[in-house]
From TrEMBL:
Presence of the UniProt keyword Membrane in the record: yes
Native organism: Mycteria americana (Wood stork)
Family annotation (InterPro entries): BORCS7
Classification via PANTHER family: BLOC-1-RELATED COMPLEX SUBUNIT 7, BLOC-1-RELATED COMPLEX SUBUNIT 7 BORSC7
Highest taxon of source: Eukaryota
Protein name: BLOC-1-related complex subunit 7
Keyword Transmembrane appears in the UniProt entry: no
Alphabetized Pfam families for the sequence: BORCS7 (PF16088)
Family classification: Belongs to the BORCS7 family.
Amino acid sequence: MAAGGAADAQARFGHSVKGLLTEKVTSCGTDVIALTKQVLKGSRSAELLGQAARNMVMQEDAILHSEDSLRKMAIITTHLQYQQEAIQKNVEQSSNLQDQLNHLLK
């Protein structure tokens, strides 16, 4: 009987160890899956950050181009104002000349 009890205890111990190993393997498998998901999520985050950085550089270039265009437009506006003043002076002078011509022709 003692041999039968020992064999029974050994079988229970074997089943217990197998059960623990199965639990550990399942737990490790779950951990590997969670780790894989986290790595993929981190990879996606890095990808999104890279895309955001590229978009930011493109926006910065657009802003710099806009600033340059605004400076050029300010210069053109100044030149147009000078030309307008010159035209106004010429119109005034031509009116004076026309008045003088009319006066001389009378």
